[in-house]
Amino acid sequence: MMPDSSAQRSFLQKHKKRQQFIRLMRIAVFLVFLIVWEISARLGLIDSFIFGSPSQVCLAFRALLLTNHLLSHIGITVFETLASFFLVVGFSLFFSVLLWLCPRLAAILEPYLVVLNSLPKSALAPLLIVWLGANYKTIILAGISVAIFGSILNLYASFTEIDPDSLKLIRTLGGKRKDELLRVALPSSVPYLLSVMKVNIGLCLVGVVIGEFIGAKQGLGFLIIYSSQIFKLDWMILSIILLCIIAMLLYQAVNLVEKRVVHAGGANRSW
Questions:
Q1: CB within 8 Å of 116: residues ≥ 6 apart
Q2: How do residues 116-154 score in pLDDT, each as one tens digit?
Q3: For residue 131, is it within any domain?
Q4: Pick from 218, 88, 206: which is nearest to 144 by CA?
Q5: Looking at the 3D structure of the chain, how many domains does it have?
Q6: Which of 58, 138, 181, 194 is least surrounded by CB atoms within 10 angstroms?
Q7: CA 202 to chain centre
């Protein structure tokens, strides 16, 4: 029996209207916040020197953009974040597979991974700067250090939760460990990998900014510290806003990849 198409269309229309309402309310809340911020600064309800105002931030954005310095800082931070993110994904997938293939090694290393993941990541950045020097490679490594240990643990946990009957079926059909990995383990871990990627993109950005705070001469993290030292607080607020925008865009990019992969997987299953 075919589902009622009119009821289906009605549900889709309601869902679409709900999503549009949510988007409009998000924009409205943001606009109200900007208006209240600007009015409070102009009326002296808040100190405009310390808290700035939207108009001051826009003027700072224009001034920095004209000097071409701002695009350089943004580009460096985005590059370091993406580099650390892709390295985290590659390394975490490799080590998770290695631990799954070698249960004894996993039993030995798992407590150390838990301890390293529990460390305050901001404490690692100064050590990395001292050991390796202040350069972009160290900043990328700082971004990696924030996300890598938790990523390995989460992905390895996804491998351990694989349906044993599926693995048994592969062995019954004469498959080897490689077949279990390629035909069962890796495909079943894709949702976990995508979920970990959505978390890691933000963590890598945090790690990069922490590294730039301490030992960089370029990047938005450096610009925040530098602007606070010379009391250009509108630059600092602008840098923080830009970091929020970058984090949102990177998250949406990973989210789009997840939707594409899920859609492609659903299409393959239906075929």
A1: 149
A2: 888 887 777 778 877 887 788 889 998 999 999 999 999
A3: yes
A4: 88
A5: 1
A6: 58
A7: 3
